[in-house]
Design goal:
alpha+beta, 3-stranded antiparallel sheet, 5-stranded mixed sheet, 29% strand, 4 helices, 185 residues, 10 strands
């Protein structure tokens, strides 16, 4: 797998985002950018775009699972991977993963490793998903209440039990991330 160290520059000018709404790249079937549009329009018209998922591990190889804030527009109150979000126009996937980890959990300065990707489809909400996994983190998780209602570090058996007993409360991205086999390697 590709080992990626800390933050790298997305572009000379940085990501493009609007004052009121994030701007994302619409992508084709081969994950190539076609145009830039507001996030709401991309979701409304079910256009293919990119998201990142991050699995934050602790020293015991447990993964932090978050319960998304009730005010979130997508899957409010569902259990999800440690951090997840859209890749902004002009932003690298790594930079998006690092940004989401800091925005949602107040965690920064970690090494992330790309593990897997899946193409955009109706099953993924038209999102090309990329999964990153952190090196074991020793710091404190500080969930942002605008993003996260609660969270817990879980081992593989605990997460498997959640998948078996209450899959209807889990985001498709968490189900996919677990299915890759990388969360607890």
């Amino acid at each position: 797998m590709n080992k990626i160290r800390k933050k790298t520059s997305a572009s000379a000018s940085g990501p493009i985002s609007g004052e009121d709404e994030e701007r994302l790249e619409v992508i084709d079937a081969r994950d190539r950018p076609l145009m830039i549009m507001p996030r709401g329009k991309i979701l409304q018209f079910r256009l293919d775009h990119r998201i990142v998922l991050v699995g934050l591990r602790d020293q015991h190889n447990r993964v932090y699972i978050q319960k998304r804030a009730a005010r979130k527009s997508i899957f409010p109150g569902y259990w999800c991977v440690s951090a997840a979000g859209h890749v902004l126009a002009g932003e690298s996937r790594l930079d998006a993963a690092l940004r989401e980890l800091e925005e949602e959990l107040g965690v920064s300065g970690l090494d992330l490793e790309w593990k897997a990707s899946t193409p955009a489809s109706a099953e993924t909400g038209h999102a090309h998903m990329s999964l990153f996994l952190s090196a074991p983190a020793g710091g404190q998780v500080r969930p942002n209440p605008k993003e996260v209602d609660s969270g817990i570090f879980m081992d593989q058996d605990e997460l498997e039990s959640m998948l078996r007993d209450m899959p209807e409360l889990l985001t498709p991205s968490l189900l996919w991330a677990f299915s890759t086999g990388y969360l607890f390697e």
